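Page 42, continued from yesterday. The earlier attempt failed because a stray header line got pasted into the input along with the sequence. Redoing it now with the clean sequence only.
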Amino acid sequence: MVAKLICCFLLSLGCAALFAENLKVKQIVEPKYYDTLVKEGLYSEYRDDGDTIYKLLPKSVYSKQIQDGAVEKAPKGFAFTYEGLYLLNKKELLKKSNSSASTITIDDVTRVARTVSKMEGMMYYSTTHKKDRVLYKKCFMIAGPGDKTKIADENTGNADGQVSYCLQDDASFGVNTYKLNYFQKNDEMFCRFELLDELGIGPFHAIMPGKMITNMVAIDCGDDLLLYLCTDLDAKKLPGIRKQVTDSMTSRMDAVYKWFLTQF
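This time it went through. C-alpha cells are written below.
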C-alpha cells in the first residue's frame, strides 16, 4: 500500500510538472490545436482558398504585425498558405545539436535565424525526384537589395529592428534574393523573409516580388520553445501550379524545421 501511494505521489508530481511546463503554451495556442501539439510535438496545415487569416498564429506581441503583413491575394490568382506549430524541448534541441550549452535563450534563437549561411547545403525531400536533395546550393547575406555582394552573417547583438538581405540558390527556383526583417523583445523573436524577385516555377515566373513571405516566430516557454513557421504566397494561376506549389512549399517548410533542430 505504501509503495502504491508513493507511486501515485510521484506520478502526480510528474503530471504537475508537465502541466507547468506547458501552461504558457496552452495560453498562447488555440485550444483546438493544443492537444495535438503537446502529444505529437507539431501541428501543421495548408490551404489554397485565398483566406488571409493566419489560423495557427500563436498569441504574441507580434501577432497583429504578422497578420497585417499577410500577402494580398488576387481574385484570379493561386493563393497558398502553410502554417506549422512546433513544440521543441530545449534539452532535446541541445542534444540533437551536440551542444555543451546548458539552455537555450531567445538570443540563441535570433542568432540561428540570422546565420543564413548555415542554410547552404540544407537537405529536403524532392517529391519530383523521390529522394533527398540539396535545397540551397548557395545561401548567404548580401550587401543590399540591388547589390549581390556576399557579406558575413549579421548575427550578433539584439536583433530588434534589423534589416538584412540574402541570396538563395534554390534547387527548383534558381537564384532569388530576399529582404529579412528581424524583431526581438523579451522572450519572443519574429523574422520575416520577403521575396524581392520574380520567382520561377518551371519555365514560368509565377510569383512576383513581394508576393511570397515566410514568417518565423519563436517564443520561450520555459523548458520548451514554441516555433511557428508560415509561408504565404499569391501566384499566377498556371497549369499544374497547385501541385507544384503545394509540394514545393510544404517540403521546404519541413526542411527548415529539421534544419532548425540541429543549429544549437
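Notes: The domain at 31-260 is CATH 3.30.530.20 (Alpha-D-Glucose-1,6-Bisphosphate; Chain A, domain 4).
Reminder to self: strip header lines before submitting.
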